[in-house]
Amino acid sequence: MPETVCDLPHVDTAVLPEMLDPARTALLVIDIQTDFAAPEGLIGEAGVDLTSAHHAIDKIEELIPIARGVGATVGFARVVTSAETDSVALKTLMQRRGRSGEEAICRAENGGADYYRVAPEPGDIEVSKLLYSSFSGTDLDEQLKARGVDTLVITGLTTDCCVDSTARDAFHLGYHVFIVSDACDAYDPDLHHHSLNVLEKNCALLTTTDAVKAAWQK
What we know:
Keywords: Hydrolase. The chain is α/β, with parallel strands linked by helices.
């Protein structure tokens, strides 16, 4: 019988509240944008099935108001690019793969970088990035530490790329990292499962939307 995300170790819901003190915790929403999630975005137009991504966004939409309501920080990270900001390494990688031009994702000028279904509100943290990690080339670490945040509850797209990169960097920077397993997606269930498995083994604890809601609604 194939393994599922439910088979991976998740934090005991009974002890989760003490780990997710809202005053020291940020809910981080990664790359919920047109090009990654909307049917009219580049990923959708390429024919990728977005059903599982939309399920993850449903969960994120549940968590955001609860986090705000209990006083946790809510942070948004998104990719915003232009032809001038594409790195030589990225362009060279794509050219060597024979996919020149496919790096033109989340362009600021055509709406691909726009938020999809979710958006920051006054008081939230917001950062723009050029590649994968929400910490690389941004002031996210400084903003979080200025608020006394030492714990991150990470959601978003995609589990294998920007969620993974952000979680690893967060751990290296000293944050307690939690991944909401049903509020992330990798478009492919096997890739999602294996990415969560690796993160759980190395730098993060797994939890679920319902568990986080229960921890914050007591």
